[in-house]
Write a structure and sequence with these properties.
Layout lengths: L12 E7 L5 E13 L3 E6 L3 E4 L4 E3 L4 E6 L4 E8 L2 E9 L3 E2 L4 E12 L5 E4 L1 H11 L2 H20 L7 H17 L2
Parallel strand pairs: 1-10
Antiparallel strand pairs: 1-2, 2-3, 2-4, 3-6, 4-5, 6-7, 7-8, 8-10, 9-10, 10-11
Keywords: Hydrolase, Magnesium, Metal-binding
Pfam family, one: DUF402
Protein name: UPF0374 protein
Length: 183
């Protein structure tokens, strides 16, 4: 990011845009509230956020969700705060970039879902294999993504970062405080 580019500050809203490997737009989240930015990471919250799919369909997120992005890891984490506990959706994706328009990343199809009871599931393997052939991800990206799946599993097992109950409690509380201040 160019030095002149200002990082969004706490309480700002940004858009999030995911792309596919071929550069096509995949999905847009319109208003994500920034909770923290640093040189390498960004934490935000979506709550009843408008989402636009690549085919023009719209939907609104159902529950509050913390989002965690890092510039050195090939994944991002969504912690969905539900009545029955916290569910996680981990997108295998390129590290993000941030410009004046939005936070942007390339979605690489594979996802890890963690249910509130702790069960885990690797999702969209067939989609990953199909797009990998179609857009020629190549062995380097395949290796990077597999290594990052192992990192995600380690973080889950050790309740590291966004997989920590304390992380979710602290940042969700901060979101609630900022929401009350903006009313």
């Amino acid at each position: 990011m160019p030095r002149s580019q200002r990082l969004p500050k706490e309480g700002d809203f940004i858009a999030i845009q995911s792309y596919k490997h071929d550069g096509s737009l995949h999905r847009i989240w319109r208003d994500t509230m920034i909770l923290k930015t640093s040189e390498n990471s960004l934490i935000g919250c979506n709550n009843h956020t408008l989402v636009t799919e690549d085919d023009g369909r719209h939907w609104v997120t159902r529950e509050p969700a913390l989002v965690y992005f890092h510039k050195h890891y090939w994944f991002n984490v969504v912690a969905m705060i539900r009545d029955d506990g916290i569910a996680y959706y981990c997108n295998l994706a390129s590290p993000y970039i941030l410009d004046k328009e939005a936070l942007k990343y390339i979605d690489y199809d594979l996802d890890v879902k963690v249910f509130p009871d702790g069960r885990r599931k690797l999702l969209d393997v067939d989609e990953y294999l199909a797009f990998s052939k179609r857009w020629n991800y190549g062995p380097e990206i395949d290796h990077i993504l597999k290594r990052n799946v192992r990192i995600i599993v380690d973080w889950i097992n050790n309740e590291k970062g966004p997989f920590s109950k304390e992380f979710v409690a602290i940042w969700y509380q901060r979101y609630l405080e900022l929401s009350r201040q903006s009313k």
